[in-house]
Amino acid sequence: MAVLNFPLCCSKLQCVPLSKPSLQIPSSSQGRTQVKITNDSSFNFGESLSKVCITALFSASLFFATDPALAFKGGGPYGSEVTRGQDLTGKDFSGKTLIKQDFKTSILRQTNFKAAKLLGASFFDADLTGADLSDADLRGADFSLANVTKVNLTNANLEGALVTGNTSFKGSIITGADFTDVPLREDQKEYLCKVADGVNPVTGNETRETLLCK
Predict the structure, then answer these.
(1) Are residues 122 and 189 in the same domain?
(2) How much is the CA Rg of the chain, to the nearest whole Å?
(3) What are the transmembrane regions (predicted)?
């Protein structure tokens, strides 16, 4: 918070221009001129104060440049556009690298994520109805409270994805999808096991085995 209080500090201290040393040239009875340099006491103070102001401004620029939340405004380290809380219905993200991208509470109906790299991306409370996530890398993605109904998850890799809350995969295509270490609710697991088939082309794991189907 020191950065935010900086303007107030400067306004009170008043960063004034530096005073220059003055020259005193007294007359000499012997025809010689002696030059004496005297320092104004405000010179050192003004110099120090200016250094403080400059340092604070530099610190402020670093603060806003390095804070990820401010730099990307709801995006991610590989996708700078704002994607959090947005209506992105039908948008094409196919093949894009969107690692740790923030899609929290966004509307993503019929959005194309085919073959996209979405490691660690957040779809918390998002609506993915009818979205295409086929061949997508979704390792560690967060689907908590998300609506994942009628989604194409063909050959998608969901290893370690989070699906707590009311996450629903009803009507989704999961042929070849890898659900290794995905903490599914028993009702969702039972539902998915009824339609599970195929082998993930990347991990080589059978979908049914990753779901621990009986």
Answers:
(1) yes
(2) 31
(3) none
Whether the model clears a pTM of 0.90, i.e. scores above it, the answer is no
Distances (CA, A) of 148 to 111, 114, 158, 171: 12, 15, 13, 9
Q: Which tens digits make up the pLDDT trace of 10-27?
A: 444 444 444 444 445 444
Residue type, 173: I
Phi, psi (degrees; rounded to nearest 5) at 51:
-65, -40
For 85-101, b/e burial (b = at least 16 CB within 10 A) is: ebebeebebeebebbbb
Domain end, chosen from 66, 90, 111, is at: 66
Total structural domains within the chain: 2
Q: Do 15 and 121 share a domain, yes or no?
A: no
User: What number of residues does the chain have?
Assistant: 214
Distance in angstroms (rounded) separating the CA atoms of residues 46 and 5: 20
**pLDDT, greater one: 20 or 146:** 146
- The verdict on 19 and 120 lying in the same domain is no
State the chain's mean pLDDT as an integer: 77
Residue at token pair 């790299």: 117
The parent domain of residue 190 ranges over 69-214
Same domain for 120 and 195, yes or no, is yes
Q: Using one digit for the tens of pLDDT, what is the confidence trace for 163-190?
A: 987 888 999 999 999 999 999 999 999 9
